[in-house]
Amino acid sequence: MIVKKSLAEGFAAFEEPWSPRVAGEINNMQIKLAKLEGAFIWHRHDEEDELFLVISGRLRMEFREQKAQVVEAGEFIVVPHGVEHRPVAEEPCEVVLLEPGTTLNTGNVDNGRTVRNLERI
Fold first, then answer.
1. Are 35 and 93 in contact (CB under 8 A)?
2. Residue 34 carries which DSSP code?
3. Residue 10, helix vs strand vs coil
4. Which end is more exposed in the chain, N or C (fewer Cβ atoms within 10 Å of the end residue's Cβ)?
5. Helix H or strand E encompassing 29
């Protein structure tokens, strides 16, 4: 069955920052919604590229090997696999992530922020 989804309703369904929710799937990719606030951890994804589409707020994507990029609402950034990065949201930020279903939110780091089983909305 084909069902449309509302980003506003999806974001309203949860509060926890840094805990992505699966909103849909296309081929082997997942469409995830995430709320970001503060700084995440430095990490990389050895196999998967990630797309961050900012819906509200502002995201600063920091990189070890290059200058940070600020991503405003309505803009996106693609972080290629293997690139060490750290998302930072100085104020609450809502993003849509497009990435393979195998992508672990903390990449090569396993710690208290790692979410292995994502909830679906």
1. yes
2. E
3. helix
4. N
5. strand 29-39
